[in-house]
Amino acid sequence: MKIPIRPRPARVFALALLGVLAVVAVIAYRNVRTAQAVLHPARQPLKPVAEGALAGRTDVELRTRDGLTLRGWYLPSRNRAAVVVMHGFAENRTQMLFEAEVLSRAGYGVLLFDSRGHGESEGDLVTWGDRERQDLRAAVDFLSLRDDVDPSRLGVLGFSMGGTTAMLGALEDPRLKAVATAGAYPSLEADTRYSYGKWGPLSVQPVLWTLRMSGVDVDAVDPMKHLCDLKGRPLLLINGDVDEYAPAFLQDALFQTACEPKSYWVVPGAHHGEYAKKAPEEYARHLRDFFDAALLSGS
């Protein structure tokens, strides 16, 4: 009669541990690869501009302080004020055609450009707001030297990554007198935890580690910590109530942290970036009213 061989407890434990470590390694590897992809997104070609839209635009080049050339368009100001318009991740300036047209028709000078690593601009590393602050500073430098623009009447509008960059840039550059953001994230770490937190630290930490090892100052991309340092400059937050990329609880946290003057418009039924699709007239009115009050009052 054969006696069944029972596996020793130590061997069972070792096999189980190896299985757990293998799962951990797979999760970590997949999230490192994901982080590498978001640092180097595929470039999207510029979308066609409808005939008659953005009339009078000219091609411009901006030079950042770290030596990159950024390409974009400028529409001259007719009211002495101007707004920088910044697109989101893995897009380009043509993502913001609606916003640019609204502001241009209202008389504003509009500078929309491709951020580093996007569209027709130089650079191959996207840093989620960290080095993009230099892109915004280059845009403000450009507008400040324009004969058609009063340098005391400058604002910025950004979507998603561009919105977070707008807040960061304004906190560092007092020349920006008004900040409007749509679908922005309050901090890079908070966004990473929300987007990649399925397995908790197992999935979050490899992403954060990869970002940091690639030279991204993750801790610096945290405008929510310092929003009150806008010191009286108005802030407009816009978000869709079904935005899966910029969920309501993160937007609510941004708004609660900010100091007055501030305003918050939630677009019913809008996913990420669907403000013009769901409520075009209201969206246009909110942008015009906000910048009119911030940049034209007393003119």
TrEMBL record:
InterPro entries per record: AB_hydrolase_fold, FrsA_esterase, Hydrolase_4
Keyword set includes Ribonucleoprotein: no
Gene Ontology MF terms in the entry: carboxylic ester hydrolase activity
Domain Serine aminopeptidase S33: from-to ranges: 78-185
UniProt keyword annotation of Cytoplasm present: no
SUPFAM superfamilies in UniProt: alpha/beta-Hydrolases
Entry keyword set: Hydrolase
Pfam families per the UniProt record, alphabetical: Hydrolase_4
Superkingdom per UniProt: Bacteria
Protein name as annotated: Alpha/beta fold hydrolase
Organism: Corallococcus interemptor
